[in-house]
Task: structure prediction
Amino acid sequence: MESLDFREVVVARRAAWLRVAWLLCGDAATAEDLVQTALERTARHWGRITRSGDPEAYVRRAIYSAHVSRWRWHRSRPPESGLPDDGSDLPAARGPEDDVTTRLALRAALARLTPKQRAVLVLRYYEDLTEPQVAQVLGVGVGTVKSQVRHALRRLRELAPELVDFDPQPDLTGGGRS
Amino acid sequence: MTTAPHRLHEQLQDLADELPGPRTSHAAAAQAAWTARRRPPRRAWVPVAAVCAVAAVLLLVAVAPTSGLRRGAPVSPASGSGALPVRVFAPPSWTPLVTEAPVERAAYVLATREVRRGPFSRGIAPVVVSADGGAYRVLPWHEGDHGLSLSPDGRRVAWVQGGFGGPETRTRVVVLTLATGRLVAQPDDARAPSSAEGTSWSDDGTRLVVWGVDYVSTAPDAGGKGNAYVLDARTLRVVSMKEGFGRAVMVGQQVLDLTSVVTGARTGLVLGDAIAMAPDAGRLAVATQTQVGSTWDSQGTRVQEIPPIAVPRLVVRSTGGRVVTDRALADAVYADVLGWGPRGVAVVAYGAGWRDVAPRVELVDPATGRALATLTELPPVNEPDLAVDIDPQVVAVAADVLAGGRTAATPPPRWGWWSVEHLRWWLSAPLAVALELGLALAVVLLVRLAVVTARADRDARR
Result:
Protein backbone atom coordinates (compact mmCIF):
# COMPACT_ATOMS: atom_id res chain seq x y z
CA MET A 1 0.00 0.00 0.00
CA GLU A 2 2.75 2.37 0.96
CA SER A 3 4.49 1.52 -2.26
CA LEU A 4 1.41 2.49 -4.26
CA ASP A 5 1.04 5.73 -2.36
CA PHE A 6 4.66 6.56 -2.93
CA ARG A 7 4.41 5.87 -6.62
CA GLU A 8 1.33 8.00 -6.96
CA VAL A 9 2.92 10.94 -5.24
CA VAL A 10 6.08 10.63 -7.29
CA VAL A 11 4.25 10.36 -10.59
CA ALA A 12 2.15 13.37 -9.71
CA ARG A 13 4.87 15.64 -8.41
CA ARG A 14 8.22 14.55 -9.89
CA ALA A 15 8.03 16.95 -12.82
CA ALA A 16 7.70 19.91 -10.46
CA TRP A 17 10.53 18.64 -8.28
CA LEU A 18 12.73 18.21 -11.34
CA ARG A 19 12.12 21.81 -12.28
CA VAL A 20 13.12 22.98 -8.82
CA ALA A 21 16.22 20.81 -8.92
CA TRP A 22 17.05 22.09 -12.37
CA LEU A 23 16.86 25.66 -11.15
CA LEU A 24 19.09 24.72 -8.24
CA CYS A 25 21.86 23.04 -10.15
CA GLY A 26 21.40 24.20 -13.74
CA ASP A 27 21.92 20.79 -15.21
CA ALA A 28 19.19 18.34 -16.21
CA ALA A 29 21.11 15.16 -15.41
CA THR A 30 22.24 16.46 -12.02
CA ALA A 31 18.70 17.56 -11.32
CA GLU A 32 17.46 14.02 -11.90
CA ASP A 33 20.17 12.71 -9.60
CA LEU A 34 19.21 15.16 -6.89
CA VAL A 35 15.55 14.23 -7.11
CA GLN A 36 16.34 10.53 -7.18
CA THR A 37 18.55 10.86 -4.11
CA ALA A 38 15.80 12.73 -2.34
CA LEU A 39 13.26 10.09 -3.36
CA GLU A 40 15.42 7.28 -2.02
CA ARG A 41 15.80 9.06 1.29
CA THR A 42 12.10 9.71 1.40
CA ALA A 43 11.17 6.14 0.52
CA ARG A 44 13.24 4.87 3.42
CA HIS A 45 10.98 6.68 5.89
CA TRP A 46 7.83 6.78 3.82
CA GLY A 47 5.54 5.42 6.51
CA ARG A 48 6.57 8.05 9.01
CA ILE A 49 6.50 10.79 6.39
CA THR A 50 2.99 10.02 5.24
CA ARG A 51 1.83 9.95 8.84
CA SER A 52 3.21 13.47 9.27
CA GLY A 53 0.76 14.57 6.57
CA ASP A 54 3.04 16.56 4.26
CA PRO A 55 5.24 14.23 2.23
CA GLU A 56 5.86 16.79 -0.47
CA ALA A 57 7.49 19.18 1.97
CA TYR A 58 9.75 16.40 3.07
CA VAL A 59 10.77 15.60 -0.51
CA ARG A 60 11.41 19.23 -1.27
CA ARG A 61 13.55 19.60 1.79
CA ALA A 62 15.41 16.42 0.84
CA ILE A 63 16.13 17.90 -2.58
CA TYR A 64 17.62 21.00 -1.04
CA SER A 65 19.57 18.94 1.47
CA ALA A 66 20.94 16.79 -1.30
CA HIS A 67 21.86 19.91 -3.21
CA VAL A 68 23.71 21.44 -0.26
CA SER A 69 25.31 18.10 0.65
CA ARG A 70 26.52 17.65 -2.87
CA TRP A 71 28.02 21.09 -2.81
CA ARG A 72 29.67 20.48 0.55
CA TRP A 73 30.89 17.07 -0.54
CA HIS A 74 32.69 18.49 -3.51
CA ARG A 75 33.95 21.33 -1.34
CA SER A 76 33.83 23.74 -4.22
CA ARG A 77 31.36 25.64 -6.17
CA PRO A 78 30.12 24.02 -9.33
CA PRO A 79 32.00 24.99 -12.46
CA GLU A 80 31.13 28.44 -13.66
CA SER A 81 31.89 27.96 -17.31
CA GLY A 82 35.06 29.97 -16.92
CA LEU A 83 33.20 33.24 -17.34
CA PRO A 84 34.78 36.47 -16.15
CA ASP A 85 33.28 38.00 -13.06
CA ASP A 86 32.10 41.17 -14.71
CA GLY A 87 29.41 39.30 -16.59
CA SER A 88 30.31 41.03 -19.81
CA ASP A 89 29.78 37.84 -21.83
CA LEU A 90 26.31 37.15 -20.50
CA PRO A 91 23.67 37.45 -23.18
CA ALA A 92 22.01 40.81 -22.87
CA ALA A 93 18.26 40.92 -22.83
CA ARG A 94 17.09 43.60 -25.14
CA GLY A 95 13.67 43.81 -23.61
CA PRO A 96 10.97 41.89 -21.80
CA GLU A 97 9.65 40.65 -25.08
CA ASP A 98 12.89 38.86 -25.91
CA ASP A 99 12.06 35.75 -23.87
CA VAL A 100 14.70 33.39 -25.18
CA THR A 101 17.51 35.83 -24.58
CA THR A 102 16.11 36.64 -21.18
CA ARG A 103 16.03 33.00 -20.14
CA LEU A 104 19.55 32.46 -21.38
CA ALA A 105 20.77 35.49 -19.46
CA LEU A 106 18.96 34.39 -16.29
CA ARG A 107 20.28 30.89 -16.57
CA ALA A 108 23.82 32.17 -17.03
CA ALA A 109 23.42 34.59 -14.15
CA LEU A 110 22.06 31.89 -11.84
CA ALA A 111 25.03 29.73 -12.69
CA ARG A 112 27.26 32.48 -11.35
CA LEU A 113 25.65 32.42 -7.91
CA THR A 114 26.75 30.22 -5.08
CA PRO A 115 24.63 27.11 -4.47
CA LYS A 116 23.19 28.63 -1.33
CA GLN A 117 22.32 31.86 -3.09
CA ARG A 118 20.60 29.90 -5.84
CA ALA A 119 18.75 27.86 -3.24
CA VAL A 120 17.37 30.88 -1.40
CA LEU A 121 16.34 32.56 -4.66
CA VAL A 122 14.56 29.46 -5.89
CA LEU A 123 12.82 28.87 -2.58
CA ARG A 124 11.93 32.48 -2.07
CA TYR A 125 10.94 33.57 -5.58
CA TYR A 126 10.11 30.38 -7.42
CA GLU A 127 8.46 28.36 -4.68
CA ASP A 128 7.11 31.46 -2.99
CA LEU A 129 8.10 30.44 0.51
CA THR A 130 8.37 32.95 3.29
CA GLU A 131 11.77 33.67 4.76
CA PRO A 132 11.08 31.61 7.91
CA GLN A 133 9.96 28.74 5.65
CA VAL A 134 13.12 29.08 3.58
CA ALA A 135 15.16 29.07 6.77
CA GLN A 136 13.39 25.92 7.91
CA VAL A 137 13.94 24.11 4.64
CA LEU A 138 17.62 24.99 4.48
CA GLY A 139 18.19 24.49 8.18
CA VAL A 140 19.65 27.97 8.69
CA GLY A 141 18.60 31.08 10.54
CA VAL A 142 16.18 33.64 9.16
CA GLY A 143 18.92 36.24 9.29
CA THR A 144 21.08 34.06 7.10
CA VAL A 145 18.25 33.73 4.61
CA LYS A 146 17.78 37.47 4.50
CA SER A 147 21.44 38.15 3.94
CA GLN A 148 21.70 35.41 1.33
CA VAL A 149 18.70 36.82 -0.52
CA ARG A 150 20.15 40.30 -0.38
CA HIS A 151 23.52 39.14 -1.66
CA ALA A 152 21.94 36.98 -4.35
CA LEU A 153 19.77 39.80 -5.66
CA ARG A 154 22.67 42.22 -5.61
CA ARG A 155 24.78 39.73 -7.52
CA LEU A 156 22.00 39.12 -10.01
CA ARG A 157 21.62 42.83 -10.59
CA GLU A 158 25.34 43.17 -11.13
CA LEU A 159 25.40 40.28 -13.58
CA ALA A 160 22.25 41.11 -15.47
CA PRO A 161 20.74 44.44 -14.39
CA GLU A 162 18.19 44.42 -17.16
CA LEU A 163 16.62 41.15 -15.92
CA VAL A 164 15.63 42.11 -12.42
CA ASP A 165 15.17 45.82 -12.29
CA PHE A 166 13.96 46.05 -8.76
CA ASP A 167 15.35 47.37 -5.52
CA PRO A 168 17.96 44.97 -4.21
CA GLN A 169 16.83 45.58 -0.65
CA PRO A 170 14.88 42.45 0.29
CA ASP A 171 11.44 42.36 1.73
CA LEU A 172 11.97 42.57 5.49
CA THR A 173 8.44 41.71 6.45
CA GLY A 174 9.18 38.00 6.29
CA GLY A 175 6.03 37.37 4.36
CA GLY A 176 5.83 35.56 1.09
CA ARG A 177 4.50 36.99 -2.10
CA SER A 178 0.79 36.61 -2.22
CA MET B 1 1.52 46.99 -12.79
CA THR B 2 3.84 44.01 -12.31
CA THR B 3 6.12 44.32 -9.28
CA ALA B 4 9.77 43.30 -9.38
CA PRO B 5 9.47 40.11 -7.33
CA HIS B 6 6.64 39.11 -9.62
CA ARG B 7 8.96 39.55 -12.55
CA LEU B 8 11.67 37.38 -11.02
CA HIS B 9 9.09 34.74 -10.17
CA GLU B 10 7.84 34.71 -13.73
CA GLN B 11 11.32 34.66 -15.15
CA LEU B 12 12.21 31.70 -12.97
CA GLN B 13 9.04 29.91 -14.00
CA ASP B 14 9.85 30.50 -17.65
CA LEU B 15 13.32 29.18 -17.08
CA ALA B 16 12.06 26.11 -15.21
CA ASP B 17 9.71 25.33 -18.09
CA GLU B 18 12.77 24.96 -20.32
CA LEU B 19 13.75 21.77 -18.52
CA PRO B 20 13.95 18.98 -21.07
CA GLY B 21 12.03 15.79 -20.49
CA PRO B 22 13.49 13.42 -17.91
CA ARG B 23 15.54 10.45 -19.02
CA THR B 24 13.51 8.13 -16.86
CA SER B 25 9.79 8.07 -16.45
CA HIS B 26 8.25 9.12 -13.18
CA ALA B 27 6.95 5.63 -12.52
CA ALA B 28 10.36 4.08 -13.15
CA ALA B 29 12.03 6.62 -10.87
CA ALA B 30 9.48 5.88 -8.15
CA GLN B 31 10.05 2.15 -8.50
CA ALA B 32 13.83 2.58 -8.38
CA ALA B 33 13.64 4.77 -5.29
CA TRP B 34 11.26 2.34 -3.59
CA THR B 35 13.51 -0.61 -4.37
CA ALA B 36 16.59 1.18 -3.12
CA ARG B 37 14.98 2.32 0.11
CA ARG B 38 16.50 -0.52 2.11
CA ARG B 39 20.00 0.17 0.91
CA PRO B 40 21.67 2.88 2.92
CA PRO B 41 24.20 4.91 1.04
CA ARG B 42 27.67 3.53 1.07
CA ARG B 43 29.72 5.27 3.69
CA ALA B 44 33.36 4.58 3.07
CA TRP B 45 34.36 6.80 5.96
CA VAL B 46 32.56 4.68 8.52
CA PRO B 47 35.07 1.81 8.80
CA VAL B 48 37.94 4.28 8.60
CA ALA B 49 36.42 6.33 11.39
CA ALA B 50 35.82 3.19 13.43
CA VAL B 51 39.45 2.14 13.09
CA CYS B 52 40.60 5.65 14.01
CA ALA B 53 38.33 5.66 17.05
CA VAL B 54 39.65 2.29 18.20
CA ALA B 55 43.20 3.58 17.75
CA ALA B 56 42.32 6.71 19.70
CA VAL B 57 40.95 4.65 22.57
CA LEU B 58 44.04 2.46 22.65
CA LEU B 59 46.25 5.52 22.53
CA LEU B 60 44.33 7.14 25.33
CA VAL B 61 44.48 4.02 27.45
CA ALA B 62 48.21 3.81 26.81
CA VAL B 63 48.97 7.45 27.35
CA ALA B 64 46.49 8.52 30.00
CA PRO B 65 48.02 6.69 32.97
CA THR B 66 51.52 8.01 32.34
CA SER B 67 50.50 11.45 31.13
CA GLY B 68 49.26 12.54 34.50
CA LEU B 69 45.64 12.55 33.38
CA ARG B 70 44.81 10.02 36.06
CA ARG B 71 47.36 11.13 38.61
CA GLY B 72 45.86 12.06 41.93
CA ALA B 73 47.16 13.15 45.28
CA PRO B 74 49.30 10.75 47.30
CA VAL B 75 47.14 8.11 48.92
CA SER B 76 48.38 8.80 52.43
CA PRO B 77 49.89 12.10 53.52
CA ALA B 78 53.14 11.84 55.42
CA SER B 79 52.83 12.04 59.17
CA GLY B 80 55.58 11.77 61.73
CA SER B 81 58.66 9.83 60.82
CA GLY B 82 56.78 7.10 58.99
CA ALA B 83 57.03 3.41 59.74
CA LEU B 84 58.54 0.27 58.31
CA PRO B 85 55.95 -2.35 57.41
CA VAL B 86 56.11 -5.42 59.60
CA ARG B 87 55.44 -7.57 56.54
CA VAL B 88 56.36 -7.21 52.90
CA PHE B 89 54.30 -8.93 50.26
CA ALA B 90 54.94 -9.82 46.66
CA PRO B 91 53.54 -7.03 44.47
CA PRO B 92 50.23 -7.99 42.84
CA SER B 93 49.81 -8.66 39.15
CA TRP B 94 48.58 -5.12 38.55
CA THR B 95 50.28 -2.52 40.67
CA PRO B 96 50.12 1.16 39.72
CA LEU B 97 53.20 3.08 38.72
CA VAL B 98 54.18 5.79 41.14
CA THR B 99 53.65 8.22 38.26
CA GLU B 100 50.03 7.11 38.09
CA ALA B 101 49.21 7.03 41.80
CA PRO B 102 51.82 8.80 43.89
CA VAL B 103 52.84 8.11 47.45
CA GLU B 104 54.33 10.67 49.77
CA ARG B 105 57.47 8.73 50.73
CA ALA B 106 58.87 5.25 50.70
CA ALA B 107 60.09 3.08 53.53
CA TYR B 108 61.55 0.37 51.33
CA VAL B 109 62.49 -0.22 47.76
CA LEU B 110 61.90 -3.77 46.64
CA ALA B 111 63.39 -5.62 43.73
CA THR B 112 61.01 -8.06 42.10
CA ARG B 113 61.27 -10.60 39.38
CA GLU B 114 58.59 -9.21 37.10
CA VAL B 115 55.87 -6.63 37.53
CA ARG B 116 53.71 -4.45 35.36
CA ARG B 117 56.15 -1.80 34.21
CA GLY B 118 53.89 0.28 31.99
CA PRO B 119 50.51 0.26 30.27
CA PHE B 120 51.40 -2.70 28.08
CA SER B 121 54.68 -3.98 29.39
CA ARG B 122 55.97 -6.22 32.12
CA GLY B 123 59.48 -6.68 33.37
CA ILE B 124 61.83 -6.33 36.25
CA ALA B 125 61.29 -3.05 38.04
CA PRO B 126 61.76 -1.76 41.58
CA VAL B 127 58.70 -1.32 43.75
CA VAL B 128 58.50 1.23 46.53
CA VAL B 129 56.60 0.52 49.74
CA SER B 130 55.08 3.60 51.30
CA ALA B 131 56.18 4.62 54.77
CA ASP B 132 52.63 5.86 55.41
CA GLY B 133 50.33 2.93 55.04
CA GLY B 134 52.43 0.44 53.11
CA ALA B 135 51.09 1.15 49.61
CA TYR B 136 53.02 -0.47 46.76
CA ARG B 137 54.04 1.47 43.65
CA VAL B 138 56.18 0.51 40.68
CA LEU B 139 58.96 2.81 39.54
CA PRO B 140 59.11 3.75 35.84
CA TRP B 141 62.04 1.46 35.13
CA HIS B 142 63.60 0.56 31.80
CA GLU B 143 65.84 -2.21 30.64
CA GLY B 144 69.40 -1.52 31.76
CA ASP B 145 68.52 1.01 34.47
CA HIS B 146 70.67 0.57 37.56
CA GLY B 147 72.36 2.27 40.49
CA LEU B 148 69.22 3.01 42.48
CA SER B 149 69.31 4.82 45.81
CA LEU B 150 66.60 6.16 48.08
CA SER B 151 66.95 9.60 49.63
CA PRO B 152 67.26 9.66 53.42
CA ASP B 153 63.76 11.06 53.84
CA GLY B 154 62.34 8.47 51.45
CA ARG B 155 60.73 11.11 49.22
CA ARG B 156 63.00 10.81 46.19
CA VAL B 157 64.62 8.00 44.29
CA ALA B 158 67.73 8.40 42.14
CA TRP B 159 69.04 5.98 39.59
CA VAL B 160 71.03 5.73 36.39
CA GLN B 161 69.36 5.30 33.03
CA GLY B 162 71.09 4.00 29.98
CA GLY B 163 72.62 0.65 30.76
CA PHE B 164 75.95 -0.35 32.17
CA GLY B 165 79.02 1.30 30.84
CA GLY B 166 81.40 1.09 28.03
CA PRO B 167 82.87 3.73 25.79
CA GLU B 168 79.75 3.74 23.64
CA THR B 169 77.34 4.05 26.54
CA ARG B 170 75.97 7.39 27.56
CA THR B 171 74.09 7.28 30.82
CA ARG B 172 72.14 9.90 32.68
CA VAL B 173 71.07 10.24 36.26
CA VAL B 174 67.40 10.78 37.05
CA VAL B 175 65.62 11.70 40.26
CA LEU B 176 61.98 10.86 40.80
CA THR B 177 59.90 12.71 43.37
CA LEU B 178 57.42 10.16 44.67
CA ALA B 179 54.73 12.62 45.76
CA THR B 180 54.42 14.18 42.32
CA GLY B 181 55.67 11.47 39.99
CA ARG B 182 57.95 14.09 38.44
CA LEU B 183 61.12 12.73 36.92
CA VAL B 184 64.07 15.11 36.60
CA ALA B 185 66.83 14.03 34.26
CA GLN B 186 70.41 15.12 34.35
CA PRO B 187 70.93 17.99 31.89
CA ASP B 188 73.52 17.78 29.16
CA ASP B 189 76.77 18.58 30.85
CA ALA B 190 80.27 17.96 29.54
CA ARG B 191 81.40 17.26 33.11
CA ALA B 192 78.78 14.62 33.75
CA PRO B 193 79.96 11.02 33.89
CA SER B 194 79.73 9.36 30.51
CA SER B 195 78.97 6.02 32.08
CA ALA B 196 77.58 6.34 35.60
CA GLU B 197 77.37 3.20 37.71
CA GLY B 198 75.75 4.12 40.98
CA THR B 199 74.24 6.86 43.11
CA SER B 200 74.27 7.74 46.77
CA TRP B 201 72.57 10.53 48.71
CA SER B 202 74.13 12.91 51.18
CA ASP B 203 72.68 12.85 54.67
CA ASP B 204 70.74 16.08 54.20
CA GLY B 205 69.43 15.04 50.77
CA THR B 206 70.78 18.12 48.99
CA ARG B 207 73.60 16.38 47.20
CA LEU B 208 73.86 13.25 45.16
CA VAL B 209 77.10 11.40 44.63
CA VAL B 210 77.41 9.59 41.35
CA TRP B 211 80.33 7.39 40.51
CA GLY B 212 81.18 6.03 37.15
CA VAL B 213 83.75 5.76 34.43
CA ASP B 214 84.69 8.65 32.23
CA TYR B 215 85.48 7.41 28.74
CA VAL B 216 85.33 10.81 27.12
CA SER B 217 88.40 12.55 28.44
CA THR B 218 90.66 9.49 28.32
CA ALA B 219 92.48 7.84 25.47
CA PRO B 220 90.36 5.37 23.48
CA ASP B 221 92.39 2.39 24.64
CA ALA B 222 92.85 3.57 28.21
CA GLY B 223 89.67 1.90 29.42
CA GLY B 224 88.24 4.99 31.02
CA LYS B 225 88.86 6.62 34.35
CA GLY B 226 86.85 6.20 37.53
CA ASN B 227 85.42 9.44 38.81
CA ALA B 228 83.01 10.57 41.48
CA TYR B 229 80.68 13.46 40.76
CA VAL B 230 78.73 15.48 43.28
CA LEU B 231 75.44 16.67 41.83
CA ASP B 232 72.99 19.21 43.13
CA ALA B 233 70.04 16.97 43.97
CA ARG B 234 67.52 19.53 42.69
CA THR B 235 69.05 20.53 39.36
CA LEU B 236 71.31 17.49 38.87
CA ARG B 237 74.09 19.77 37.69
CA VAL B 238 77.64 18.79 38.58
CA VAL B 239 78.87 20.68 41.62
CA SER B 240 82.28 19.06 41.89
CA MET B 241 84.22 16.08 40.65
CA LYS B 242 86.85 13.80 42.17
CA GLU B 243 89.08 11.83 39.87
CA GLY B 244 90.33 8.36 40.52
CA PHE B 245 87.37 7.25 42.63
CA GLY B 246 85.82 3.82 42.41
CA ARG B 247 82.83 4.10 44.65
CA ALA B 248 81.82 7.07 46.73
CA VAL B 249 79.64 8.23 49.59
CA MET B 250 79.27 11.62 51.15
CA VAL B 251 80.27 12.16 54.76
CA GLY B 252 79.02 15.60 55.59
CA GLN B 253 80.21 17.69 52.65
CA GLN B 254 83.18 15.43 51.99
CA VAL B 255 83.26 12.73 49.35
CA LEU B 256 84.72 9.51 50.62
CA ASP B 257 86.32 6.97 48.30
CA LEU B 258 85.15 3.48 49.20
CA THR B 259 87.39 1.62 46.81
CA SER B 260 89.76 0.73 49.57
CA VAL B 261 86.93 -0.17 51.94
CA VAL B 262 84.89 -2.42 49.74
CA THR B 263 86.49 -4.32 46.93
CA GLY B 264 84.59 -6.00 44.19
CA ALA B 265 81.48 -4.02 44.96
CA ARG B 266 78.74 -4.10 42.40
CA THR B 267 75.93 -1.75 41.73
CA GLY B 268 72.33 -2.11 40.72
CA LEU B 269 69.66 -4.34 42.12
CA VAL B 270 71.97 -7.06 43.18
CA LEU B 271 72.35 -8.22 46.72
CA GLY B 272 75.74 -7.97 48.32
CA ASP B 273 76.86 -4.53 47.34
CA ALA B 274 75.21 -2.30 49.91
CA ILE B 275 77.11 -0.20 52.41
CA ALA B 276 75.65 1.36 55.52
CA MET B 277 77.15 4.48 57.02
CA ALA B 278 76.97 4.83 60.79
CA PRO B 279 75.06 7.82 62.16
CA ASP B 280 78.35 9.19 63.51
CA ALA B 281 79.75 9.02 59.95
CA GLY B 282 82.87 7.35 61.25
CA ARG B 283 82.14 3.73 60.45
CA LEU B 284 80.86 1.69 57.55
CA ALA B 285 79.13 -1.65 57.64
CA VAL B 286 79.17 -4.19 54.83
CA ALA B 287 78.04 -7.79 54.60
CA THR B 288 80.63 -10.09 53.14
CA GLN B 289 80.21 -13.64 52.11
CA THR B 290 81.75 -16.24 49.90
CA GLN B 291 79.36 -17.99 47.59
CA VAL B 292 80.83 -20.97 45.84
CA GLY B 293 77.82 -22.07 43.85
CA SER B 294 76.33 -25.46 43.01
CA THR B 295 78.37 -28.48 42.16
CA TRP B 296 77.82 -30.01 38.75
CA ASP B 297 78.93 -33.35 37.33
CA SER B 298 80.36 -33.95 33.88
CA GLN B 299 76.87 -34.51 32.42
CA GLY B 300 75.73 -31.10 33.58
CA THR B 301 73.59 -32.40 36.44
CA ARG B 302 73.62 -30.53 39.70
CA VAL B 303 74.77 -33.03 42.22
CA GLN B 304 74.61 -30.80 45.24
CA GLU B 305 71.44 -28.78 45.35
CA ILE B 306 72.34 -26.59 48.30
CA PRO B 307 74.97 -24.11 47.18
CA PRO B 308 77.88 -24.22 49.60
CA ILE B 309 77.62 -20.69 50.87
CA ALA B 310 79.78 -19.47 53.67
CA VAL B 311 78.08 -17.86 56.65
CA PRO B 312 77.64 -14.18 55.95
CA ARG B 313 79.60 -11.78 58.09
CA LEU B 314 78.93 -8.23 59.13
CA VAL B 315 82.14 -6.26 58.82
CA VAL B 316 82.39 -2.79 60.31
CA ARG B 317 85.28 -0.69 59.15
CA SER B 318 86.42 2.78 59.87
CA THR B 319 86.20 5.22 57.02
CA GLY B 320 89.90 4.72 56.64
CA GLY B 321 89.39 1.04 55.92
CA ARG B 322 90.42 -0.42 59.27
CA VAL B 323 88.31 -3.34 60.44
CA VAL B 324 86.55 -2.44 63.66
CA THR B 325 84.45 -5.56 64.13
CA ASP B 326 83.88 -8.68 62.08
CA ARG B 327 81.01 -10.86 63.24
CA ALA B 328 79.23 -13.81 61.71
CA LEU B 329 75.51 -13.32 61.19
CA ALA B 330 74.09 -16.36 62.89
CA ASP B 331 71.05 -18.16 61.45
CA ALA B 332 71.50 -16.57 58.04
CA VAL B 333 72.60 -18.10 54.79
CA TYR B 334 72.69 -14.81 52.95
CA ALA B 335 72.65 -11.20 54.11
CA ASP B 336 73.01 -7.67 52.99
CA VAL B 337 73.07 -4.40 54.88
CA LEU B 338 70.38 -1.80 54.23
CA GLY B 339 71.10 1.04 56.60
CA TRP B 340 72.44 2.04 59.96
CA GLY B 341 70.07 3.53 62.47
CA PRO B 342 70.55 4.71 66.06
CA ARG B 343 69.79 1.25 67.43
CA GLY B 344 71.78 -0.83 65.01
CA VAL B 345 72.37 -1.94 61.47
CA ALA B 346 69.39 -2.98 59.37
CA VAL B 347 70.25 -6.20 57.62
CA VAL B 348 68.15 -8.18 55.22
CA ALA B 349 68.89 -11.77 56.06
CA TYR B 350 67.77 -15.02 54.52
CA GLY B 351 67.53 -17.69 57.12
CA ALA B 352 69.07 -21.09 57.14
CA GLY B 353 66.94 -23.99 56.05
CA TRP B 354 66.25 -26.15 53.08
CA ARG B 355 62.75 -25.56 51.81
CA ASP B 356 61.69 -23.22 54.56
CA VAL B 357 63.75 -20.13 54.08
CA ALA B 358 62.43 -17.11 55.94
CA PRO B 359 63.80 -13.80 54.74
CA ARG B 360 63.51 -10.89 57.09
CA VAL B 361 64.89 -7.46 57.82
CA GLU B 362 66.65 -7.49 61.16
CA LEU B 363 68.19 -4.90 63.37
CA VAL B 364 71.67 -6.20 64.18
CA ASP B 365 74.04 -5.05 66.85
CA PRO B 366 77.18 -4.03 64.95
CA ALA B 367 79.36 -4.88 67.87
CA THR B 368 78.21 -8.47 68.35
CA GLY B 369 76.53 -9.37 65.08
CA ARG B 370 73.49 -10.55 67.03
CA ALA B 371 69.95 -9.77 65.96
CA LEU B 372 68.24 -7.26 68.21
CA ALA B 373 64.81 -7.28 66.59
CA THR B 374 63.01 -8.34 63.47
CA LEU B 375 61.74 -5.27 61.67
CA THR B 376 60.04 -6.78 58.65
CA GLU B 377 59.18 -10.24 57.47
CA LEU B 378 59.38 -11.07 53.80
CA PRO B 379 57.35 -13.73 52.00
CA PRO B 380 58.86 -17.17 52.61
CA VAL B 381 60.58 -18.71 49.63
CA ASN B 382 61.07 -22.31 48.75
CA GLU B 383 63.90 -21.95 46.33
CA PRO B 384 67.44 -22.88 47.25
CA ASP B 385 68.96 -20.52 44.68
CA LEU B 386 68.44 -17.60 46.97
CA ALA B 387 70.48 -15.00 45.21
CA VAL B 388 68.44 -15.10 42.05
CA ASP B 389 65.00 -16.34 42.95
CA ILE B 390 63.90 -14.40 45.97
CA ASP B 391 60.91 -12.27 45.23
CA PRO B 392 60.75 -9.64 46.47
CA GLN B 393 64.13 -8.48 47.71
CA VAL B 394 64.54 -5.43 49.92
CA VAL B 395 67.28 -3.33 48.36
CA ALA B 396 66.98 0.05 50.05
CA VAL B 397 65.51 1.63 53.16
CA ALA B 398 64.79 5.26 53.94
CA ALA B 399 67.36 6.30 56.54
CA ASP B 400 65.02 8.69 58.36
CA VAL B 401 62.28 6.06 58.61
CA LEU B 402 64.78 3.53 59.89
CA ALA B 403 66.07 6.07 62.38
CA GLY B 404 62.51 6.67 63.61
CA GLY B 405 62.42 3.03 64.61
CA ARG B 406 58.68 2.60 64.10
CA THR B 407 57.09 -0.43 62.53
CA ALA B 408 53.46 -0.78 61.57
CA ALA B 409 51.22 -3.58 60.46
CA THR B 410 50.09 -2.98 56.91
CA PRO B 411 47.53 -4.96 54.96
CA PRO B 412 48.62 -6.88 51.88
CA PRO B 413 48.11 -4.92 48.65
CA ARG B 414 44.83 -5.81 47.02
CA TRP B 415 45.63 -4.58 43.59
CA GLY B 416 45.07 -6.66 40.51
CA TRP B 417 43.45 -6.33 37.14
CA TRP B 418 39.95 -6.92 38.46
CA SER B 419 40.37 -5.59 41.97
CA VAL B 420 38.13 -2.98 43.56
CA GLU B 421 41.22 -0.84 44.17
CA HIS B 422 42.07 -0.90 40.50
CA LEU B 423 38.51 0.04 39.56
CA ARG B 424 38.44 2.79 42.18
CA TRP B 425 41.72 4.19 40.88
CA TRP B 426 40.42 3.97 37.31
CA LEU B 427 37.34 5.98 38.25
CA SER B 428 39.22 8.50 40.35
CA ALA B 429 39.83 10.95 37.49
CA PRO B 430 36.51 12.24 36.09
CA LEU B 431 38.13 13.83 33.05
CA ALA B 432 39.92 10.64 32.08
CA VAL B 433 36.77 8.61 32.64
CA ALA B 434 34.71 11.00 30.51
CA LEU B 435 37.25 10.85 27.71
CA GLU B 436 37.50 7.10 27.79
CA LEU B 437 33.78 6.51 28.02
CA GLY B 438 33.12 9.02 25.25
CA LEU B 439 35.63 7.42 22.98
CA ALA B 440 34.43 3.96 23.86
CA LEU B 441 30.87 4.99 23.02
CA ALA B 442 32.06 6.45 19.74
CA VAL B 443 33.84 3.22 18.98
CA VAL B 444 30.74 1.16 19.70
CA LEU B 445 28.56 3.38 17.55
CA LEU B 446 31.00 3.50 14.69
CA VAL B 447 31.63 -0.20 14.73
CA ARG B 448 27.91 -0.81 14.80
CA LEU B 449 27.45 1.60 11.92
CA ALA B 450 30.23 -0.09 10.00
CA VAL B 451 28.61 -3.48 10.54
CA VAL B 452 25.21 -2.21 9.46
CA THR B 453 26.68 -0.56 6.38
CA ALA B 454 28.62 -3.65 5.41
CA ARG B 455 25.54 -5.80 5.89
CA ALA B 456 23.41 -3.47 3.81
CA ASP B 457 25.99 -3.42 1.04
CA ARG B 458 26.11 -7.19 1.07
CA ASP B 459 22.34 -7.42 0.91
CA ALA B 460 22.27 -4.94 -1.94
CA ARG B 461 24.80 -6.96 -3.91
CA ARG B 462 22.60 -10.00 -3.55
Q: What stands out?
A: Residues 430-461 of chain B form the longest helix (32 residues). The interface with chain A takes residues 3-9, 11-20, 22-24, 26-27, 29-34, 36-38, 40 of chain B (CB under 8 Å). DSSP finds seven helices and 28 strands in chain B.
